[in-house]
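Action item from last week, closing it out:
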Amino acid sequence: MEPESAVTTCYRHPKVESHVRCTRCDRYICPDCMREAAVGHQCVECVKEGARSVRQARTAFGGRITGVPLVTYVLIGLNVLAYLGELVRSSVVDRFEMLGRGLVGPDGGHYVWQADYPPGYHPEGVVDGEWYRLLTGAFLHLPVAEGTFGILHIVMNMVSLWNIGRAVEFQLGRIRYVALYLLSALGGSVLVLLIAPDTPTLGASGAIFGLGAAYYVMARRLGADMRSVNRFMAGLLLWLLISAGLTSWQGHLGGLLAGGAVTLAYAYAPRDRRRNLVQAGTCVAVLALLVILSLAKVAELTV
């Protein structure tokens, strides 16, 4: 009489008969636990272990490769939501636009700063501790019926953010892109605080100029055909000159300088284990510089 053959079962499902082995760990696996492999099938645990051991693909600047410009979508969404908030309540602009110093009168009106202000008036702006204005102003835009551009202000900025932001995000990855955008926006506001503290400003242009500087630096680092890139930068610099008579050139220039400084670190950091440290350290250094300049200017304005 022949001996009864042993029945093999799945290592994860002992009640399920199985005759297929994982090509990596050699354990029996059932159809529910099988995963296609280059040769044969692997179990769930071996597939997970293999994924952990595979090095994630990176861009030339150290960012994770992504196929969806999620951060650009979010930034555009935040700007549009802020604009809708302005339409619903116009006081949002006065409350959150970038302003170094100003006065609020007893009638609720907003007035130009003067050191010896009369009774009933009180300060507003960064000098009054409203530090959030350094960033919130970068998400606001001119209301429909105000300013030189009206609704074109947000339309032009969002179109620029869509065109430039996607290219920059794909190259830098999301984390580096967020840091670049916020530091560029902050750089624009800080230069406004330093040069024109009495002038209220708003708009994403400073951050977008920072992205423009990043686009130029990355193109040079990657050895791209610079003809079209140079034309783009010429247009950007031309708009910087034109904006001196129309909008806040200080915000544009501040964003350009901050964005360029950060991207130089992104692009030319050593391509080894020191890269993340150099890139993060530069971002922290730029942030620290902007904070120190802001504190020094506010101290000067409040003397």
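Closing note: The CA atoms of residues 116 and 122 lie 11 Å apart.
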